[in-house]
Amino acid sequence: MILGFISFLLSVCQNLINRICIPESAARIMLPCIEESKAREDAAKLCKRKGEVPMLSEEALHQLHIFIFVLGVVHVLFCVTTLLLGGAKMRTWNKWEKEIQQGRLNEREKRPGWMKPSAVRWIIAFFKQFYNSVGKPDYQVLRSAFVLRHYPNRPDFDFHKYMVRALEHDFKEVVGISWYLWLFVIVFLLLNINGWHTYFWLSFLPLILLLIVGTKLEYISTRLAQEAADCSDEASGNPWTKPCKEHFWFSHPRAVLHLIHFILFQNSFEMAFFFWVLATYGFDSCIMENRSYALPRLAIGIIVQVLCSYSTLPLYAIVTHMGGDIKLQAFGEHVHVS
């Protein structure tokens, strides 16, 4: 709906936009690639009188309409992919949940001495996000800590079902499009200048941010699970209650959710731009640049989408529930409102 409204505004304001004139030298500098455009021959008469050219021609506005449509389609498809991959990850948790309720528990192995230094734990957390972001021992310990804190009289509490609803609540915020994301899109389109290779270098931004966020969440998850396992107060009926907020940047877990939101939207934008250029101008066009730049961008986009959906987002959902207040949204919208 938002994308359609923006496209509608572009149609309404088309005449006003065409009257925005800039020097021809500035127009040449801001081109994504050096290629004479046929649309420049039909430039507005007002700009011709001033010896300038329109900032956006009618052809450019038409292509912008198409790009907005492609962005909307790709964003929706990527959101569906995020939900499917996150659900696939959580289905493994459902298997563990049934085993735990049947009494089949596995004791968490004690951490060797060489794993105690902080630098070693950070390195392990970095690589763990690629193959086993939430292992069965960690899930078992974190689930036990959550149930002991909030439902001490209900050991059969379905923690997996609660986590699925919590992930759905976080998913609603992740798939939105905020004003600062649109601001980023505008800045990117303005900085996509010939010779800068902006699109190529910018494709590394979501990957770098994702690796940082994933490592941080994995480190917090491992630390909380170890603290819960080492806690000896459970025998006296006083469950582990240390909050997890202090482990996050600025003690603000939602800052990580905003970063995940930005990563997923930026990745959708990157892929939408790639498919739009491919469908409009072709793979060999100057806007696409050469294959040594185009193919790595496509590979990075796929890696970011799979890793963030299957590993990072479910990991965030479980970590933010440890030692803090319970999220009523996970019990349903009606319970939350009440």
Automatic annotation (TrEMBL):
The keyword Transmembrane helix applies. Its main location: membrane. One of its GO terms (biological process) is defense response. Coiled coil: none annotated. The chain crosses the membrane at residues 64-85, 174-193, 199-217, 255-278, 298-319. It is found in: Membrane. Keywords: Membrane, Pathogenesis-related protein, Plant defense, Transmembrane, Transmembrane helix. GO terms for cellular component: membrane. It holds the Pfam family Mlo. It is a multi-pass membrane protein. InterPro entries: Mlo (IPR004326). PANTHER family: MLO-LIKE PROTEIN 1, OS02G0197200 PROTEIN. Belongs to the MLO family. This is MLO-like protein.
